[in-house]
């Protein structure tokens, strides 16, 4: 999604929030105060606690592995760079379709309709790109974290947003070793 569309979306959400809080104040001062304080608490939790914790974990992983961490004021940060000769991208993605249509691919390859019904909105994903290309997409693992081979990428998908740097680093090393062992 382009930066302009994201900015328009954030402005639209902010306008709707202001209108909703204004309407609550118009109905009752107590309702308005409650909704205002609740909204401030939710925004603080998302950006002040959860996002900060995940960004700190990603930053630790990036520094330990010699990769670059790209911080974003509104979204979770992304790690990019070259690790042991492979282009790596680690980030928090908003849905399976943002990760290259993985939901549809996982459903069609595994025969389990649950992947399309999971409706996972935020998850940590690790992508490794390499030179050779797979002829067909394939799911390697049966359980989470899922490993998906598609095109010239192998992807590891957590079912949640991970804030543990050791877990992210361990799974990246596992994925790189898997690629090197199988000579993809």
Order of helices and strands: HHEEEHHEEEEH
Kindly report the average pLDDT value.
82
- Indicate the low-confidence ranges by residue numbers: none
The fraction of residues assigned to DSSP E strands is: 15-25%
- How is the biggest beta sheet arranged? 7 strands, antiparallel
Which structural class best describes the helix and strand composition?
Answer: alpha+beta
| Total helical segments | 5
Task: Provide an overview of this structure.
The protein is of the alpha+beta class. The protein is built from five helices and seven strands. A seven-stranded antiparallel sheet has the order 1-2-3-4-7-6-5, sandwiched between helices.
Topology (SSEs and partners):
Elements: H1 3-27, H2 29-65, E1 68-70, E2 78-83, E3 86-93, H3 102-110, H4 114-117, E4 123-129, E5 138-139, E6 146-150, E7 153-157, H5 165-182
Antiparallel strand pairs: 1-2, 2-3, 3-4, 4-7, 5-6, 6-7
Brief characterization of the structure:
It contains five helices and seven strands; from the N terminus they run ααβββααββββα.
Question: Characteristics of this structure?
Answer:
184 residues; alpha+beta; seven-stranded antiparallel sheet
